[in-house]
Specification:
The structure is a homodimer. Chain A is of the alpha/beta class. Helix content of chain A is 39%, strand content 16%. In chain A, the strands form 4 sheets. In chain A, strands 5-2-1-6-7-8 form a 6-stranded parallel beta sheet. In chain A, strand 1, helix 1 and strand 2 form a beta-alpha-beta unit. The radius of gyration of chain A is 25 Å and the shape is elongated.
Chain lengths: 389, 389
């Protein structure tokens, strides 16, 4: 790829002025960058995005920062300096989207509230991402992913009963908010093509957690009972769980009558098909612990590889529980170009997750441009502004 | 809201022909419906979407189905019947987007491969969602959320060390795929406004899991070591974990020096600030178990309410670990209209999660139209097609 040239995609031609830091906002703008948008990362001096200091490091550079900010441009802007404010306003005039994830009110205090922005730049789409949103009694509260996961309910349904509460190992509070925001921004851009008007999008991490509770919320709404954690099993389909084998664990999902019978035969346990305790899915779910014990007594006789191969051949949905090494070496993951590389001038080749949105009319290249150093793109950006003026 | 009239939003005027079932696809089209798209759910007779049979039930109707399909229209279409194929093709001609989550190849076998679709309907956006994607050696494998969570790595970093593998309690395999697809569809619609051409979007649930591994993938790429589960704590920031109080658990995130000192003072444990074991974040992380013990010895003296109030007043990021009842009664969640209602003619008032994408130029009404019964909208849809012809 040529230097200074972004990915080609459905958002080619769109410029995003990105004041967001750490994860939720940068994840959102990374997704948009993968779809072809130009992302100008406006960072606050002297240190810029906090996540530049987050480990692990490669040759002194944050691998975390590099993966989330590949292909973006960086310029330092101090919104308290009049000269810099002018520059910021020029950038706004040349941008299609402004993204930020400050505490609500931060940008407004600097004079950039939505009403003023909309009056000055009527076509600008403004996406504000925050822990609790720009309205409501908790709007001002500080938020981290762990706080949002805790308050949003997902921790109450994750983990094993009797254990302390368990956090989802990936920052789902940030990531789902980033994804709802990327959807909202693209929809707002489509609306702008038709109406000529931008809009403000206000996304709260807590709201997004409520939006992903799916069957837990349906259960509570229907039955008035708060569901608890179930380890790895399905609340109403059995067998659908993690099972111990001779050398580890695997998952098996064989909920319907047909698949259950096939599973029993494949395990050489035909008698389980006619076992009264397991005669239908409801009974299997009521007696799930007993069924698990029966299954594991056979599964423990061989290792994962044996069972994955055998069950896979019979078309019984199952899978290994991959650690990162397993995931990144999976032939399917590699065939789908889900590991891409950027060549960083200091850190060398950096591997990172690719773009899961595969499009028929755009390439999915195996390389990305690296993440920018702090303020690295200032001159290019100033030159471009001068040319436009 | 008037019958037959969808939500107003940035996608108003867009029609989605939705052949998807269960969760990933219906979640995606629900998000688009909340943004104003009209969603016509084309269901396969005789039973339609499998999730119509998924509990819990209210007056015989699935609460799960009703929440995911609110505001959509339903028509039964048997693609093996010539007459129905003609109807399907008329619907395609009148639609902007086709969404499906069949096993790859299913629609192509029926004559509706991408090349044929694109030739016949050049402006159509076709989104195919599947477990493993339309390419690669595992493309044909059957997938459920549990299989995808297991193979995609998130289970290897979720849960407590030494426990059996833990599934994220909400179906993140389906939901993240739904969200990446909704982003891709909106971006493709923007591209179509400019180019006049539709495109195919091929989204794999497994790819999406790779795309959300964030700091785990950065760690593996940088250090070559697969990270394991950490319960609820942060790998490199301390204190940042779940802590036991007198009557339960709460989360506290006080990673930087300033917040840590404030926390110690608030707990009346000033001596911890000068304790050599906890002198900086790295030391606190190395000695996290000892620090947790010290903190909990104080936290256990009072209940959650006491500590949440006290720490909250001091601006120390913290929060309760809400179960569903707690989430749905949170004043912030309610102030943000994150619980909406649909009036189902059989089941009565059904409560469900609202739309987390709040937009300045569109209303966020507290009611939704109910989900359709199977084939309920046939006559309306046929009438509309006749009018158009």
């Amino acid at each position: 790829m040529k230097k200074g040239k972004g990915m080609q995609g459905p958002l080619s031609g769109i410029t995003i002025l990105d004041m967001s830091r750490v994860l939720a906002g940068p994840f959102c703008t990374m997704v948009l960058s993968e779809l072809g948008a130009r992302v100008i990362k406006a960072e606050i001096p002297p240190a810029g995005d906090d996540s530049r200091q987050f480990g692990p490091f490669v040759e002194g550079k944050s691998a975390y920062f590099m993966s989330l900010n590949r292909g973006k441009e960086s310029i330092c802007i101090d919104l308290k300096e009049p000269g810099e404010r002018k520059l910021f306003e020029k950038l706004l005039a040349g941008s299609d989207v402004l993204v930020e994830n400050f505490r609500p009110g931060t940008l407004a205090k600097l004079g950039y509230d939505w009403e003023s922005l909309h009056a000055a730049y009527p076509r600008l789409v403004y996406a504000a991402l925050s822990g609790f949103g720009h309205t409501g009694p908790k709007s001002d509260m500080p938020a981290y992913d762990l706080v949002i996961q805790a308050m949003g309910g997902i921790m109450s349904i994750t983990g094993y009963p009797g254990n302390p509460p368990t956090r989802v190992g990936s920052s789902m509070g940030d990531i789902t908010a980033g994804l709802f925001t990327s959807t909202g921004i693209c929809a707002a851009l489509r609306h702008r093509e038709i109406s000529g008007q931008g809009m403000m999008i206000d996304v709260s991490m807590l709201d997004c957690q409520v939006a992903i509770l799916e069957n837990a919320i349906a259960r509570y709404a229907a039955e008035g009972i708060s569901p608890g954690p179930l380890g790895a099993r399905h609340p109403s389909i059995t067998p659908f769980d993690v099972y111990a084998t001779g050398d580890g664990y695997m998952v098996i999902c064989a909920g319907n009558q047909n698949l259950f019978a096939k599973l029993c035969r494949t395990l050489g346990r035909d008698e389980l098909i006619k076992d009264k305790r397991f005669a239908n899915n409801d009974l299997r779910t009521s007696n799930q612990a007993a069924l698990k014990q029966e299954m594991e007594s056979t599964l423990r006789s061989q290792g994962n590889a044996h069972w994955l191969d055998l069950l896979g051949q019979k078309g019984i949905p199952c899978g290994p529980i991959n650690n990162l090494e397993g995931v990144l070496n999976d032939p399917q993951v590699n065939a789908r170009n889900m590991l891409v590389e950027a060549l960083d001038p200091t850190a060398g080749k950096v591997r990172m997750a690719g773009n899961p949105i595969k499009m028929s009319c755009f390439e999915d290249p195996p390389e990305r441009r690296p993440a920018p150093d702090l303020d690295q793109s200032r001159q290019d950006i100033l030159d471009l502004l001068r040319k436009k003026a």
